[in-house]
Amino acid sequence: MLRPDTPRLLLLLPTATYRTAAFVEAARRLGVVLTVASERPSTFQDANPGGLVTLDLSEPDRAAAQARAFAREHPLQGVVGVDDDTAVVAAAIATALGLRGNDVAAARAARDKHEQRTSLATAGVPVPHFRLFPVDEDPRRLAAGVPYPCVLKPLRLAASRGVIRADTQEDFVAAFERVKRILEQAGCATRSILVEDFVPGREYALEGLLLAGELRVLALFDKPDPLDGPYFEETIYVTPSRLPAEEQRAVAACAGRAAAALGLREGPVHAELRVNGSGPWLIELAARPIGGRCSGALRFGTGGSGLGTWASLEEIIVRHALGMQIPSLERESQASGVMMIPVPGAGVLREVRGVDEARRLPLVEEVVITAHPDQELVPWPEGARYPGFIFARGDTPEAVEAALRAAHRRLQFVIASD
Ligand code: ADP
After folding, report:
1. Does residue 126 have its Cβ closer than 6 Å to ligand 1?
2. Could you tell which of 152, 204, 283, 386 is best to mutate to test the pocket of ligand 1, judged by most ligand atoms within 8 Å of the CB?
3. What number does the ligand 1 atom closest to the CA of 157 have?
4. What average pLDDT does the segment 268-284 reach?
């Protein structure tokens, strides 16, 4: 039997996600009852009333009405979205039910790259110059009017899908046509392409938590591989950052200003920033946690000292959503990193060799191959799924980075590319 005061959290899961396990585990550890909301009715729903609910996640207002009806029978104390779309739905539900969360307008402004750029530029947050073009314009005509290098991108895709750098007018025309095809493949309703000045510099990812409008930095990751394009598949993230402390403060301040400019006040944020001679530039800020499996690189508190157990990022997010006390926002003292394994080429994956050998290397904690045999691997910019992840921990970021690279060198992807 549930104790009547056991809090219930509504977790919004888009269908294509691999984040479920970490949230389910976090809820279990915290003794929180979880209701998982997804788009499609589940056959388990009847067997587990209260544990599962079907919501129309593509329509935030409708989903909020459905959640309100559900909450009459199963009162909800918190709501969490895990990706860009469900962040907007979570905001709508939080507003409808009076739960902790963001304003819908703020979540929407973060969700759309053009709206985000407009809000940030208006507020004076450093962002690249940008312009929006309808996809049916003639790229040959547009190409003469944009500065180079520039970056073309869709408004609502994620994981750098469809993000392409162009250095010349010829590149621009090819990239424009390519982004247009990617929008069609992805079934995107918004038929516009954002074109921005290319911001040179090193890139950093900031993981944070907003508490009543104040940004608390949970981790700043270096991205040691240059991300200069023409496509922007990620590889290595390592924390703590090797950036001097003063620049780290500038990066955090820039992300904090961006969150405030968008009107975001509560919950997880994941921001990408570039740093060059002019200081930090905000590339993107999302009202959600770091994507995919990467949160496994983060743990908080003092679990290793025998005084307790580590808290995961998901536990912090669940506690925050429910208004529970958060024991620590301090990341562990060890360096930690993750490599999003690059797509080794286009084709059908047959097998991955060397995984056990890679796992046995010093500092390497885990090598997870998420692609399955016979899966088609699609390189960027059309693709958006990494075939796997490597995790390492050690005394220094340098050692962690070296371990990730060494493990990656052991892997051999066998691909049929006919
Ligand atoms: P997504 O949400 O799909 O990840 P982003 O807008 O964050 O799209 O772009 C993905 C990546 O592309 C960034 O992390 C960055 O490496 C690169 N990028 C995007 N816009 C720019 C820009 N204006 N200048 C330089 N690099 C950029």
Report:
1. no
2. 283
3. 3
4. 98
Superfamily in which the 129-197 domain is placed by CATH: ATP-grasp fold, A domain (3.30.1490.20)
Cis peptide before 344 (omega within 30 of 0): no
3-60 tens-digit pLDDT: 667 899 999 988 755 567 899 999 999 999 999 998 877 666 666 778 899 999 999 9
pLDDT in tens, 388-412: 999 999 999 999 999 999 999 999 9
- What is the pLDDT, as a whole number, of residue 49? 72
Q: Do domains 8-109 and 334-418 have the same CATH topology?
A: no
Q: Hey, where are the domains in the chain?
A: 8-109, 129-197, 334-418
Separation of 132 CA from ligand 1 center, angstroms?
Answer: 16
Query: Residue 206 corresponds to which tokens in the numbers above?
Result: 């900031």
- Residue to substitute in 115, 127, 163 for testing ligand 1 pocket (most ligand atoms within 8 angstroms of CB): 163
Name the CATH superfamily, with its identifier, for domain 334-418: ATP-grasp fold, B domain (3.30.470.20)
Q: Is 161 in the pocket of ligand 1 (CB under 6 A)?
A: yes
Kindly give the distance from the C-alpha atom of residue 223 to the centroid of ligand 1, in angstroms, as a whole number. Answer: 13
CB of residue 157 inside a 6 A radius of ligand 1:
yes
CATH 3.40.50.20 fits 8-109, yes or no: yes
For residue 2, the model assigns a pLDDT of 61
Atom of ligand 1 nearest to the CA of 284: 7
